Amino acid sequence: MAGTVMSSLAQQMLAIVVAWDLYLATKSPVVLGNVGLVQIIPVMVFALWAGHVADRYDRKRTAALGQAAYVLIGVVLAIDGVQNVPLIYGCLFVSGLARTFQWPATSALLPQVVPPESLNRAVSWTSSARELSTVGGPAVAGLLLASVGSESVYTLYTVLASLSLLCFILLAPQPVAGGTVLGVAVVGLAVNAFVAWRLGHATGSVNARAALLHVMGDMLGSVAAIVAGAVILATGWMPIDPILSIVVALLILRSTWTLLRQTTDVLMERVPAHLDYAAIGRRLASIPGVRDVHDLHVWSMGSSETALSAHMGIASGDAWPAILAEAQRCMREEHGIHHLALQPDWPVGPRATGHRVIPLEARGGRPS
Fold this sequence. Notes:
Blueprint: H1 2-26, H2 29-56, H3 59-80, H4 85-113, H5 119-147, H6 150-170, H7 178-199, H8 206-235, H9 240-267, H10 277-285, E1 290-300, E2 306-314, H11 320-335, E3 339-345
Parallel strand pairs: 2-3
Antiparallel strand pairs: 1-2
Helix pairs in contact: 1-2, 1-5, 1-6, 2-4, 3-4, 3-6, 7-8, 8-9
């Protein structure tokens, strides 16, 4: 019931913030009217099929998949949904499609998880809570829109949808053979520990780190399975299995996101996060004999290699060897940059007389 109520509250909030963003972007009542049309089209097309799916397939899984679609919609809108009309319409269509399949599955699921003697009360509470959400959702959305903007409403929508998805996942977990889970997990942990030990001796490349991260995720899964199997054998409490699965998934997601950012920095040739671009420029400019530093570029060549290129204005070409040696030293020792491409430039005086000059001749013309 809690998952259904939070989902309903989130949908009411989404309707308000979407209407507001569309109004700000278009100032058109026709566009606002299309909000309901976009959401009702999936209902008209797939309603009968949705009832058939709820009747023949796993209702809990169907409801959870619909809720997962809501979470995805919230993430997309929170990232780039503010006044983006095509994206909002697409998300509304997906939302209507998810609701078409989720509602029959949720309604049919209630008698499966509630004892017969409590079913009437559960239906009454659920209906009342849904009606309250139709009032509370717009009120909360309006207050947030007036105070901090639509981004906060999209964020809260995503949080509520995620909590509702968690409720569906934890609802009536399937029986788990604790002894079998415990035995298989111990074997898996031993194998993954050996593979992680071997990968730990590999080079520090991004590929090796990604492989090690994958194995560490498997190890975490094995540890979680061992704990879940032991708890189920000792107490019979089944929800421990999905709870630990979610915890492991979040830990893996965090580590994967960090690795993805690092590889993206390499591909996009960004300044490494541990280096200060402005400080590097000031340090090069502070070398005696340097007039200025321009066209400075610092980028990642790999997981542990950084390159630098720059133009350095100097007073005289005679001082360049000493300046180059000092620049290489300070970049290597102070910033860990070993690959430098530095180009000097200095003012050139008037051409001295008495030097041999090679004349330039234009095609078909006279020497210049």
